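Students often ask why inverse folding is considered easier than folding. One informal answer: many sequences map to the same fold, so there is more than one right answer. In these notes we will look at a single instance of the problem. The structure comes first.
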């Protein structure tokens, strides 16, 4: 800047000095004017340099303070019309206020986040890409029976959490920790900090919830079993007492043989019904894990649709899809759904349709009927609950277990576009 200012004034200064020293002037005047011209030239150059450099130094100091996170330094020069450097200082002050507000918000959000994770009773651990612990909440400290100072910086292997960082998520596992032994719900997610990937691990104690759910399941099961057993044992007991009375009478009635034969038939019928009920329960309890294999969906649906001979099943073909699932279990599921649909249209004389479609990463298989629809959906998936005279009450429960075993879901609802019901199976594509 100084050199540029000197070069700007150099032509005029040289012309003035040449005219001064070649003119008819006294030496004293020549030296006086020479010193004045040169001095004035240098003073203007230095002044111009200072006028530009000093604001730039101020701006540099402000930016350095912002980089260090110090928002207490501000430029006090108000912007004047046409003063670009002063306008830059004004904008830096505005930037400082924005950064200060953002930093304050980030600090408050971080403080709130730490307070929340310390309050919740779910153990939370954050590991970096090398599986080194970088964050733990109070529940995690309690679980490990150590303070955060003793835990941070240790690897997942040292903390016996390496198995939780692998495998399916979410899932339920039984793990013995120094602070507690229980069944834990394991969930993982990923996030980035400083551009580097991290894993967030959450361990929730499921023992109390599982015990409560188990207790309710046992209550429902005992209630259903008791109801079914009473329905079978009560007539058996009554018939046996009647037969004992007939055989103990003297003389016996003339038709006592036919009464005994009839009573024994009643006992045999009820024991057969009770045996079917027990077999149905055993079948539900022994459902194996699905054996996954690749197969085309369309041939399976068409094959199962031909098995129902009471009504013509219309197959509305969707896109060509292949699934990785257990074809035997899916066949059983689809057979049950089509059988229920055929039972429903037997009352109304309507039709049954089956089809499939794909929605992003999900395959949806649906069965529609033109039956009377569902009077209530509250007990559809309650084991052994049935509205059919000879039903077992396990068909839909078995279907839902098969769907959930494949990572999918099964739902039933009344159709919105007409009478009847729609069963919709959703599976991973």
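Output (designed amino acids):
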């Amino acid at each position: 800047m100084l050199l540029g200012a000197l070069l700007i004034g150099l032509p005029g200064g040289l012309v003035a000095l040449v005219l001064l020293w070649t003119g008819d002037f006294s030496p004293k005047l020549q030296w006086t004017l020479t010193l004045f011209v040169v001095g004035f030239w240098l003073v203007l150059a230095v002044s111009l340099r200072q006028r530009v450099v000093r604001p730039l130094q101020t701006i540099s100091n402000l930016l350095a303070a912002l980089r260090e996170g110090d928002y207490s330094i501000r430029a006090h020069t108000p912007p004047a019309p046409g003063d670009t450097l002063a306008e830059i200082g004004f904008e830096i002050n505005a930037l400082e206020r924005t950064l200060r507000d953002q930093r304050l918000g980030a600090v408050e959000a971080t403080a709130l986040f730490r307070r929340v994770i310390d309050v919740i009773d779910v153990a939370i651990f954050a590991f970096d890409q090398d599986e080194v612990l970088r964050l733990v909440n109070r529940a995690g400290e309690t679980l490990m029976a150590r303070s955060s100072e003793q835990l941070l910086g240790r690897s997942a292997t040292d903390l016996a959490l390496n198995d939780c960082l692998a495998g399916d998520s979410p899932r339920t596992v039984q793990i013995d920790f120094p602070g507690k032994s229980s069944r834990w719900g394991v969930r993982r997610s990923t996030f980035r900090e400083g551009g580097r990937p991290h894993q967030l691990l959450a361990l929730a104690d499921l023992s109390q919830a599982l015990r409560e759910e188990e207790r309710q399941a046992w209550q429902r099961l005992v209630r259903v079993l008791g109801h079914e057993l009473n329905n079978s044992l009560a007539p058996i007991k009554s018939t046996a007492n009647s037969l004992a009375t007939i055989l103990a009478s003297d003389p016996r009635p003339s038709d006592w043989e036919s009464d005994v034969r009839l009573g024994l038939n009643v006992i045999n019928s009820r024991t057969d019904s009770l045996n079917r009920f027990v077999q149905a329960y055993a079948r539900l309890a022994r459902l194996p894990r699905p054996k996954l294999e690749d197969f085309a969906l369309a041939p399976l649906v068409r094959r199962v649709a031909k098995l129902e001979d009471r009504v013509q099943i219309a197959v509305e073909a969707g896109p060509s899809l292949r699934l990785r699932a257990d074809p035997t279990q899916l066949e059983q599921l689809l057979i049950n759904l089509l059988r229920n649909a055929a039972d429903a249209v037997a009352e109304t004389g309507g039709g049954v349709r089956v089809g499939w479609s794909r929605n992003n990463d999900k395959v949806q298989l649906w069965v529609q009927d033109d039956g009377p629809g569902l009077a209530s959906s509250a007990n559809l998936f309650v084991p052994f609950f049935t509205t059919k005279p000879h039903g077992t009450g396990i068909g839909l429960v078995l279907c839902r277990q098969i769907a959930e075993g494949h990572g999918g879901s099964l739902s039933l609802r009344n159709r919105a576009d007409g009478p009847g019901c729609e069963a919709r199976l959703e599976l991973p594509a």
